[in-house]
Each structure stands twice: as structure tokens, then as C-alpha cells.
Amino acid sequence: MQIAHQLVKLYFTTPLHIGNERSDYVSSNFIMHSDAFMAAIFHAWSRLGYGKHIPDSPEKLPGFAISSLFPFVNAPGNSKSYYFLPKPRWGYKIDDDFKDGQEKQPGQNQYDIYRKQLKKAVYVDWDLFPKILQESKLSSVNLSNRLGSYFWIGDDGVPLETLQNIVRSQIVPRATVSRSGTEDTVIYYVERHYFKPNQSGLYFLIYYEDEDKQLRERIEKAIYFLGQEGIGTDRNVGNGKFKPEFCEPPEMQIDDSRQGYAVNLGLYHPSSFGELQHMLHENRTTSQISYELIRRSGWLSEPYQTWRKRAVYMFSEGSVFKRLSDSDNKVITMGSNVDVKPQNVHPPIPHPVWRFGRTIFIPF
């Protein structure tokens, strides 16, 4: 199954800091959510003279959707790249008293044992991801040498050194110095992430809903622009710069099993209450629906840095929903954009500030 039209690798040349809900800089994410990168693309469009293509209403779509930014690593001496995705939540039904190392008890499904092991995983690679979704495929995977690892690869032939140091973190001190000299210098700390040069980084997927060649050109120009400007926090001191590489995404081996579910690869905000109601409505005793909500807020970019966006809750990556149509077994995009422009500010902001909640869904 081809789940996207384009895959973009970002090789970072400077440290990366991605802000989170904490008010300080000590903690940082090393992935970037789809809504934040979409906002960065729109901001780049406004700087490059493509402002007329930015949606001006919730009904207007930009013609494409993206996944969130996830880690990848190139195996040393090997042309193969390992792309990681968030482990699907996929409603685990395991006896809480069952511990690792215990033998399978009567009535326990072998799949339950694998699920218990996989609870330790955070990111799984491109080949392991569909096997988690398909019960019949997971029993063929040897997970014994992946326990305790943050990144899981289902290929036994991959040395564990490949999984080590994909990204490393460092906390560095910074200082705020008073311009007038009347205030004390304030020391604070920032967590920065470093990827292996030319070997690891972040990638994301692009799904084009509009087959417009000029749209692709605009997106690629925006990505090159962001590579020079940087993404994330502290771009003014050189953080977040990267070199992009545009690739063809590998196929994902998902059988046409029609289990009736779908998993999202980016943050999702439902288009309507009816859509949400359908995707979450199922018999609780048999349902595999599982999701997590994430609060999204943050500060506006220049020239409105002192204003904060209104907060909105969205479904995090890897959530599992009931598919809108059981007969539809192809990749789709769903969701809506939300205007989070702050209210009652002076002077008022003359344009919408979008939190984009439309992303790619993989059916299974």
C-alpha cells in the first residue's frame, strides 16, 4: 500500500529544540507535530509571496496533508533507511497480572504476549508497524532483542548499534541580560537534541489531495526556506537548520483484511461532531478503539510574539478509530483546521491563525 506521495528527510546541521506545554526550556520534544510544521509551511509561504494560497476559511483546504515529523536512521554501510512511526495504540486487552517472563497460560492469546512486550516500545519501524496492526503477522517477529529499547525494529539482522544514539540530548545554560543594566542577569537552561550527521534526523510524509504541479513546487520551496531559517525554538541563535532530501516513500505491507479501523499519522481534529461520533462509537466489549488527547497551544510568530494562541485539544498520533466506511480500504485524509487567533487584543490580528488538524489515516 502506498500511504503517501512523497517522503521528506530532514538532516539537521544545527541543534534542535521543539517546545512543549512546559513554560520553561529544560524539556524538549525531538519530534515535531504535524500542526506545527503546517504552520511553519504557511509562514514560509507568506514570506515567499504565496500568501494567497493560505486558507482563509475553515472550509478551504490547502490541497495536501502531512504526517508529523518522526525519526529515521540510515544503517551504516547499508543503503537501507529505517523510518520510525509511533506505536499504534490499538486497544490492548491484557490481564494486568500477566508479567514478562511468565509462560503462556491457558486461554491467553499469543498476541497478548507480544502486546505485553510492545508496551515498552515508543516508536516502531516501517516494517513492524503494519504487523502490530495485523494479528496474524506479529507472531513471526522476534522481539526478544528489542526489549527496553526506545526504538524497535522488527528485523533480526539489524545490529542494535543502529538503534543507539539516533538522537542525543544536551542541556546547556543560557542567559538573559538586561539591556538597560538595571535588572539582574537571569540564567536558564535549554535542552537541545543532536542527530547523527548525515545518518539520522526527522522525516515526514506528504499526501497530495490536489494533483497540481505548482503546489508541489510551492511546498518544496517552503521546505528549503525553512531549512535555511530553522524550525523549532531559538531559531535566532541558529537552532533547527536542516538540509532536506525528497524521496519516494516505501510501500507498507498491509493486507486487505478490512478490520474496519484506521490509525492517524499526525494530529487530528474532527471536521464535525457527527464524524467524531461515528469514529468513536462501537461496542465497548469488542472495540479496539484507543486514543490519546493532546493539548496544543503556544506563542504566535513575529510580529505578534507577545500573544498566545488559544488552546485546542487534538488526537495524538497513533490513535485508532473506527473507519468511516468499512468498504473503503485506501489511505485517506481527514480533519479540519481551527482558527486559534487570540481574541480581544489590540490591535486585532487581521488574518486567521490556523491550527491544522487534517492528516493522513492508514486503514487496516
UniProtKB/TrEMBL annotation:
Record keyword Nucleotidyltransferase present: no
GO terms, molecular function: RNA binding
Keyword RNA-binding (UniProt): yes
Coiled coil: none
Superkingdom of origin organism: Bacteria
A Pfam family this chain is assigned to: Csm4_C
Domain Csm4 C-terminal stretches: 284-363
GO biological process annotation, one example: defense response to virus
Keywords on record: Antiviral defense, RNA-binding
InterPro entries referenced in this protein's UniProt entry, alphabetically: Csm4, Csm4_C
Family the UniProt entry places it in: Belongs to the CRISPR-associated Csm4 family.
Stated name of the protein: CRISPR system Cms protein Csm4
Taxonomic source organism: Thermoflavifilum aggregans
